[in-house]
Amino acid sequence: MKRKHLFRANALFCLLLFLFSCDKEEVIEPVEAVIPLQVGNEWVYDVIEYTSDGKVLSTSSFRRQVVKDTLIHKTTWYILNNGMIVRNDKDGYVHYRKDAREQYITYPSPEMSGIAYGYQYPNYTLWIYHRRAPGLVEVPNSSHASQAIEFSFERQTEQKASSALSTTWVKEYVTPEIGMIRTDWYYADSDKLMRRYELVNYRVQ
């Protein structure tokens, strides 16, 4: 008899717990669409290489395109023409590394600014610090946007043989309506421009 009462009490408790759980709404964190991702979107860039004294060394063209989407762990991702797998996430714009089966932040959300990743190679170790500037910054001489979000990447390379450390800065300017507008690579341990990706035209849906 006591077992019967105990069973009823446990059943009532489980029912109340279930009803309470149903009343609670699932909290969905907002996702900032840092890059407009949809199959068919594409961007074409001029790639300009500079000498250390600021002269144009060479020019070429670079195209980035969203070729298809795919599901990974029941989440939609987008595959670019260079094979990268990317999506907009609550932590920012992220890419999926198939070798590690993990996602890595490329453009951090404001809360994730300052995140760093370390990569071990046979002859050197690479650390990349991802930062996001607060607010919008000006994009000088751009025909597509006067202001954008600035993401900077500090790339620290340490050679194993000599323990020599060098630092390279990369800055990227992005708008959610268009995507990446400009990327500036600088010579190691210098503020001299080495390479620039400049948006020429784009198509987003």
Can you count the helices? 1
User: What would you call the shape?
Assistant: globular
CATH class call: Mainly Beta
The share of residues in helices is 10-25%
Protein name: DUF4595 domain-containing protein
Signal peptide: 1-24
Keywords: Signal
Word description of this protein:
Mean pLDDT is 89; it is low at 1-26. Strand 11 and strand 12 (179-186) form a beta hairpin. The protein is globular, with a radius of gyration of 24 Å. The chain has one helix at residues 2-23; strands at residues 42-50, 56-72, 75-80, 85-89, 92-97, 102-108, 115-120, 124-132, 137-138, 147-159, 165-175, 179-186, 193-203. It has a single domain (2-203), classed as Beta Barrel (YmcC-like fold). The chain has 1 helix and 13 strands; from the N terminus they run H-E-E-E-E-E-E-E-E-E-E-E-E-E. Strands 1, 2, 3, 4, 5, 6, 7, 8, 9, 10, 11, 12 and 13 form a 13-stranded antiparallel β-sheet that branches. It has 205 residues and is mainly β.
List the helices and strands and how they pair.
Blueprint: H1 2-23, E1 42-50, E2 56-72, E3 75-80, E4 85-89, E5 92-97, E6 102-108, E7 115-120, E8 124-132, E9 137-138, E10 147-159, E11 165-175, E12 179-186, E13 193-203
Antiparallel strand pairs: 1-2, 1-13, 2-3, 3-4, 4-5, 5-6, 7-8, 8-10, 9-10, 10-11, 11-12, 12-13
